[in-house]
Amino acid sequence: MTFLRFALRRLAEMAATLLAASFLIFGAMYLAPGNPASFLLSGRSASPEAFRAINAQYHLNDPFWQQYLRWLGQVLRGDFGRSIEYRTPVSTLLASRLPSTLLLVAMALALVVVIGLALGWTGAVRGGATDSTILVATTFAVGTPSFVAAVLLQGLFSVKLGWFPSSGTGSGPASMLWHLTLPALALAHYLIGMLARVTRSAMLEVMGHEHVTVARSRGVPERAVIRRHVFRNTLGTVLTMGGLIVSTLLICTVLVETAFSVNGVGQLLDLSTTTKDFPVVQAISLIIVAIFMIVNFLVDLLLPLVDPRVTLGTRGGAV
């Protein structure tokens, strides 16, 4: 399959998936109990005229399909509507909170890639007690939810040792990095354990292949064997986890940002869900779906470069 045909097909699939996701996201909010108009009034009593005015302003009384088509048309123009809770455009809210979330996700992703690959490599190569220790540590990491890790990290490094702030985002690049260190660790720990175990298993499997045995029999140094013939052939397996890693990071930011009071998109999603701020929840959910699909698209493009046995559109399959 040529690159152009593959790209066009995937883009068409992504457009159809986004359309279906937009319908589900828009409709799901209306299944939740409560009325957004009541949140606008903050519990205050109001006359029927006031309720009618609010419903008219936000088109809450229009038929579902009219509301959906109106919202979809706005989204296609880059307009996510106006927040019911904050009374400001959703794009403005996202722009003010997005830098914190992007920095947090980037820090967590860097920790996942560096530490996860290093632990997987070390466990596969060293074996013995080192491998057993890494397996125990990664099992503990995989079995510990993000919010539990957040509480443990706060209690140890913020409350007891006082090394890091327990909440907030900070101001300025250095301060933001300092404030987001613990949240990034809480966000990354699960994926570090998972990536380490996947890398270890993939490397151990490749070590038993014939080409590795032949390279060793020819006197190729062990480090070169591991780097060129073992680790390189596991990158395809590791790369296929890219979509899962990014989607998990984006979803878990809701828990981690709430636990550490990080002024980011994840905390905004949590607050907006509580107050039934439809436009904000719908915008963030749709953006997460779009990012997930873009990452998977990029993974499919990179796989043939990492593993020549894989062709475009065949993830993990040798041809």
From TrEMBL:
Residues 98-299 form the ABC transmembrane type-1 domain. The keyword Amino-acid biosynthesis does not apply. It comes from the Bacteria. The chain crosses the membrane at residues 12-32, 102-122, 134-157, 177-198, 235-260, 280-299. It is found in: Cell membrane. Keywords: Cell membrane, Membrane, Transmembrane, Transmembrane helix, Transport. The keyword Translocase does not apply. It is a multi-pass membrane protein. PROSITE patterns: ABC_TM1 (PS50928). Belongs to the binding-protein-dependent transport system permease family. This is ABC transporter permease. It comes from Streptantibioticus parmotrematis. The lineage of its organism: Bacteria, Bacillati, Actinomycetota, Actinomycetes, Kitasatosporales.
